[in-house]
Amino acid sequence: MNTTKESVKVMKLADLPQQIGKEVIINGKSVALFHLTNGDVRAVLNSCPYKNGPLAEGIVSGEFVFCPLYDWKISLVTGEVQKPDDGFVETFETEIKDNYIYVMV
Questions:
Q1: Tens-digit pLDDT profile for residues 60-80
Q2: In the β-sheet with 100-104, what is the strand arrangement from edge to edge?
Q3: Domains, the chain, ranges and CATH?
Q4: Residue-wise over 52-63: b if at least 16 C-beta within 10 A, else e?
Q5: In angstroms, rounded to a whole number, what is the distance separating the alpha carbons of residues 40 and 42?
Q6: What is the pLDDT of residues 13-58, one digit of tens each?
Q7: Where is the Rieske domain (predicted)?
Q8: In angstroms, rounded to a whole number, what is the distance separating the alpha carbons of residues 27 and 35?
Q9: Which three-class secondary structure state does DSSP give residue 15?
């Protein structure tokens, strides 16, 4: 099965404040976007693996987001949940072109 990824233009970089998550819907999926203090933009599925907490509403620390419901710590780079909890969330590649954020889905 060959799956082709599509680059979707989602918003201006200036419209995504640093350290604040933003939910966007891309092809029917709820995606959480984060503009980190190091300038990177990360995108993950907007659902914590434990009880589906909305990650876009979580607290960002470095390259991690903390689920607003149960405080699970999740890597915005790999999607891996940090121990002692277990699981992962889907991550999406991002790209900045002409001051716009694109997400690969």
A1: 999 999 999 999 999 999 999
A2: 7-12, 100-104, 94-97
A3: 7-104 (2.102.10.10)
A4: ebbbbbbebeeb
A5: 6
A6: 999 999 999 999 999 999 999 999 999 999 999 999 999 999 999 9
A7: 8-103
A8: 21
A9: helix
